[in-house]
């Protein structure tokens, strides 16, 4: 072949292969056609119609094809009405310093108002500012504090909002009972004088709960507490409805209500002739706007209203019930119920799952009156056909925060539970939903506890703790609790046999129940328990032998023995870090991970309680740069997710910014991050082979991650250790310094070819048989008249530790003299696991190493150690290592 031909062929080949090289990697999609984030294998559930907090407001946009929602996650989104696909999200609100943070009510939902032309939107942020948005682009136009143009020394959070139909005027109330009219274009403000005097300047004098413009923009209604007429009795301010003339700012009408609070929802009829206002007793006040008077009162079954909207012709009023989330259609002329939409609601009562109950309208009606949007119940909205009452959005998976998940026993199925009582099963390979079961829950105790095998749910019921079958909803039994006391938190043991409950009334009380029979196993007062930090407690060790509770201070954790209730170990946290946000035992149960926040974790040795290793930054203020928790259903201290891989070599850590950090335990370094959730990650779990990680979030979805994309391809390869290095590591295992001994463990684990034979030689050395005759002599010498003999016998018996535990107990049972009895008790107290020192501690660490190496040779050594004295913690640990490998 000529040189020209060769060059031509190479050029042709380059032209063919170059486009292939330039092609970007294929983007995986979920079952609904939405792209998956990098390193994700599947998404369980959907992002359609979802927020990462309760949806608090909805509005149909004028084009009839899109719908806008706002949520407690601080996000405003626009959706395609036909598909539920997100079209755009408004820009994040800039982070602003709050003038007086202690004055803010972080529980207030995000209030929004949209103009009738659909062009302008106003919202209040959790920083106290009012934000004006362009709906078409989602861009922020301006932000300001509603202070009537004055720089007030006191920070006064805004309350309700209303936009005029043309979007040019904003009405906003604040918690000092001031009502402002603001120009959305210029930002200038004026206060309506009567409202500005409310409470005499006392911000707690009253609150205007709601405001609304009439459709023609001429009138403004304010409803709520007005305290200026009750200066002599500010403890019982009146509740009033006031009608204002927008142009002049004059008050046209006042109607006082002394028997109920009014103004939770206020709406005008489309023809401007009627005004509807809800009250706290379930009643609805209807006003004749033209004649400025009360027209009639409605009382639809006395149920508190979670939203109202007039039909387009103004003849009917649609009212949402807070009790069961159904919607009634009320004929205004007769006051009778014409029909009820969605009689069989799909969820739990709003108050039971933490949904919003006041301060916003939970209903929005399309312009043609055919579709009704319902919000305030979950992190998704509901959409109903008004004519038929049919649900137009079929729930897929969860609509609430996913707080628990596991891989099923078949290692393929994924099980999950959300805090609204929905239990789901999924195909872990395809992401397809298999079953969706709604469990009814009460408003006490929060989300049910789920057994590790996913078969049982435990929740607080009317008569005690109720156990239900997770798949069939069948009630298995009710566990009665003393004096009917409610449990603040419940947890199953990893072996599914014990249910723990913690009651926090006048004192902390721990209850342990047998799951199979419902019998109370133990009940004890935990005098040394920080009742304000209970979210950190009720964590079982993997062998179900220990349970962790917060101690009496803000920096201590206490490990209790489940079988005896005795304190085994106490772990002290640095004062500047306080208690961890999450606690996780390593799979072998010999280390406890304390999660103090993003990139800040500490690993402690259970055998000593001392710190083994820190991950990420040290001495970090846990409250610094942590985003505000915008969901009042969650505790203000962020309880984030932490999970170990099955081999204990990886740790996954959920962070407040919705990312998941993956850490190498051996190296103590961060391998990378998984990013893709739109809300805080609440729960994490690895697959049995450690290759997949599943995460559940407040955004209602579960993501399946490919761990191999970030983790090393295999176990770390160590180097060959010299005999001197082996001896040095063996000596370090004897050291009380847990950091030093952990480094020795890691070094030995990296070189199994040298360490295994060495461990075998050290641990299988023939120990001289116990000289029972000598032991009995020393026991008798504890009563010897000579002090030196008694002291020598005590020292010799102490050296034998667990080997003579049974002998010590028998001697104590024989009722010896006072001094001998005291010596025997002290000797017994220093046997067992609570006082691990010297050789026993080194052997405990050697067992941990053998467990990790997990080879035939290692198991032979473990079997030898497992044949030791039954009471010995070393025997128990060796047996546990063998047992957990068989599970």
Task: Walk me through the structure.
This protein is 17% helix and 33% strand. The chain has 887 residues and is of the alpha+beta class. A 4-stranded antiparallel beta sheet has the order 1-55-54-53, with no helix packed on it. A 4-stranded antiparallel beta sheet has the order 2-3-4-5, with no helix packed on it. A hairpin with a 5-residue loop joins β2 and β3 (66-71).
Distance between the amino and carboxyl termini = 66 Å
Strand content: 25-35%
Average pLDDT over all residues: 82
Compute the CA-based radius of gyration. Answer: 33 Å
Instruction: Work out the helix count.
Output: 13
Report a brief summary of the structure:
The protein has 887 residues and is an alpha+beta fold. A four-stranded antiparallel beta sheet has the order 1-55-54-53, with no helix packed on it. The longest helix has 20 residues, at 3-22.
Give the tags.
17% helix; four-stranded antiparallel beta sheet; alpha+beta; 13 helices; single chain; 33% strand; 887 residues
SSE topology:
Layout: H1 3-22, E1 40-44, E2 55-60, E3 66-71, E4 76-80, E5 86-89, E6 112-114, E7 120-124, E8 130-134, E9 139-144, E10 158-163, E11 169-174, E12 179-183, E13 189-191, H2 193-196, E14 208-213, E15 219-226, E16 238-245, E17 251-257, E18 262-268, E19 274-279, E20 284-288, E21 293-298, E22 305-310, E23 316-321, E24 327-331, E25 337-341, H3 350-353, E26 363-365, E27 371-374, E28 382-385, E29 402-407, E30 413-418, E31 422-427, E32 433-438, E33 449-450, E34 456-461, E35 464-469, E36 475-479, E37 489-492, E38 498-504, E39 508-514, E40 520-525, E41 539-540, E42 546-550, E43 556-561, E44 567-572, E45 582-585, E46 591-597, E47 600-605, E48 611-616, E49 642-644, E50 650-654, E51 660-664, E52 669-674, E53 681-686, E54 692-697, E55 702-706, H4 723-732, H5 738-749, H6 752-763, H7 772-781, H8 787-800, H9 805-813, H10 818-829, H11 838-853, H12 856-866, H13 873-886
């Amino acid at each position: 072949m000529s040189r020209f031909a060769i060059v031509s062929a190479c050029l042709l080949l380059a032209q063919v292969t170059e486009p292939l090289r330039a092609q970007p990697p294929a983007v995986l999609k979920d079952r609904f056609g939405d792209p998956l984030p990098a390193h994700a294998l599947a998404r369980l559930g959907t992002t359609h119609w979802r927020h990462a907090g309760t949806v608090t407001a909805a509005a149909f946009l004028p084009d009839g094809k899109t719908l806008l929602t706002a949520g407690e996650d601080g996000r405003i989104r626009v959706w395609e009405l036909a598909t539920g696909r997100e079209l755009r999200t408004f820009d994040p609100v800039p982070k602003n310093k709050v003038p007086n943070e202690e004055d803010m009510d972080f529980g207030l939902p995000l209030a929004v108002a949209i103009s009738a032309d659909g062009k302008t939107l106003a919202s209040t942020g959790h920083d106290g500012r009012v934000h004006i948005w362009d709906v078409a682009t989602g861009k922020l136009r301006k932000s300001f504090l509603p202070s009537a143009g004055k720089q007030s020394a006191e920070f006064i959070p805004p309350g309700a909002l209303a936009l005029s139909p043309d979007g040019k005027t904003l009405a906003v109330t604040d918690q000092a009972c001031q009502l402002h009219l603001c120009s959305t274009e210029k930002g200038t403000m004026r206060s309506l004088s009567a409202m500005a005097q409310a409470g005499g300047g006392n911000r707690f004098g009253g609150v205007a709960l709601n405001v609304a413009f009439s459709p023609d923009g001429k009138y403004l209604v304010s409803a709520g507490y007005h305290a200026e007429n009750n200066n002599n009795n500010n403890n019982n301010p009146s509740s009033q409805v006031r009608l204002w003339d927008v142009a002049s700012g004059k008050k046209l009408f006042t109607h006082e209500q002394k028997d109920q609070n009014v103004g939770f929802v206020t709406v005008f009829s489309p023809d401007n002739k009627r005004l509807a206002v809800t009250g706290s007793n379930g009643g609805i006040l209807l006003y004749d706007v033209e004649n400025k008077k009360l027209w009639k009162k409605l009382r639809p079954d006395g149920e508190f209203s979670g939203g109202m909207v007039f039909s387009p012709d103004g003849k009917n009023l649609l009212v949402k019930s807070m009790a069961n989330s159904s919607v009634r259609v009320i004929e205004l002329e007769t006051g009778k119920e014409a029909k009820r939409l969605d009689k069989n609601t799909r969820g739990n009562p709003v108050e039971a799952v933490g949904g919003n109950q006041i301060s916003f309208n939970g209903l929005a009606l399309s312009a043609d009156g055919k579709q009704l949007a319902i919000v305030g119940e979950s992190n998704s909205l509901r959409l109903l056909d008004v004519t038929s009452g049919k649900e137009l959005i079929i729930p897929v998976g969860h609509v609430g925060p996913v707080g628990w998940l596991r891989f099923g026993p078949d290692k393929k199925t994924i099980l999950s539970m959300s805090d609204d009582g929905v239990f789901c099963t999924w195909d872990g390979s395809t992401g397809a939903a298999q079953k969706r079961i709604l469990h009814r829950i009460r408003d006490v105790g929060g989300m049910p506890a789920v057994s590790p095998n996913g078969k049982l749910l435990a929740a607080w019921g009317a008569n005690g703790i109720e156990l239900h079958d997770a798949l069939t909803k069948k009630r298995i039994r009710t566990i009665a609790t003393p004096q009917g006391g409610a449990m603040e938190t419940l947890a199953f043991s990893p072996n599914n046999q014990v249910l723990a409950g913690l009651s926090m009334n006048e004192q902390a009380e721990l209850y342990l129940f047998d799951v199979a029979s419902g019998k109370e196993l133990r009940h004890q007062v935990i005098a040394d328990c920080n009742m304000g930090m209970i979210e950190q407690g009720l964590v079982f060790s993997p062998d179900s032998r220990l349970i962790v509770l917060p101690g009496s201070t803000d920096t201590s954790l206490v490990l209790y023995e489940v079988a005896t209730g005795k304190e085994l170990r106490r772990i002290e946290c640095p004062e500047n870090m306080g208690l961890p946000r999450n606690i996780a035992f390593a799979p072998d149960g010999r280390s406890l991970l304390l999660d103090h926040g993003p990139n800040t974790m500490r690993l402690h040795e259970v055998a000593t309680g001392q710190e083994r290793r820190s991950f990420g930054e040290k001495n970090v203020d846990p409250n610094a740069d942590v985003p505000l928790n915008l969901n009042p259903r969650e505790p203000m201290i962020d309880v984030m997710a932490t999970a170990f891989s099955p081999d204990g070599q990886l740790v996954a850590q959920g962070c407040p910014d919705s990312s998941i950090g993956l850490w190498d335990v051996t190296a103590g370094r961060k391998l990378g991050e998984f990013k893709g959730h739109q809300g805080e990650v609440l729960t994490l779990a690895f697959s049995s082979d450690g290759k997949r990680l599943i995460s559940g979030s407040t955004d209602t979805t579960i993501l399946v991650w490919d761990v191999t994309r970030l983790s090393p391809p295999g176990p770390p390869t160590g180097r060959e250790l010299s005999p001197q290095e082996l001896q040095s590591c063996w000596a370090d295992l004897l050291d009380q310094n847990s950091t030093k001994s952990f480094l020795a463990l890691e070094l030995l684990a990296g070189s199994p070819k040298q360490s295994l034979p060495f461990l075998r030689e050290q641990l299988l050395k023939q120990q001289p048989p116990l000289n029972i005759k000598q032991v009995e002599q020393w026991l008798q010498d504890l009563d010897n008249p000579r002090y030196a003999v008694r002291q020598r016998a005590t020292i010799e018996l102490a050296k034998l530790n667990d080997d003579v535990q049974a002998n010590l107990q028998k001697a104590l049972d024989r009722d010896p003299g006072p001094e001998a009895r005291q010596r025997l008790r002290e000797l017994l107290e220093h046997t067992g696991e609570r006082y691990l020192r010297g050789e026993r501690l080194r052997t405990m660490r050697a067992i941990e190493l053998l467990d990790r190496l997990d080879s035939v040779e290692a198991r032979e050594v473990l079997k030898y150690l497992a044949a030791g004295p039954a009471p010995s913690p070393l025997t128990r640990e060796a047996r546990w290592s063998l047992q957990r490998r068989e599970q």
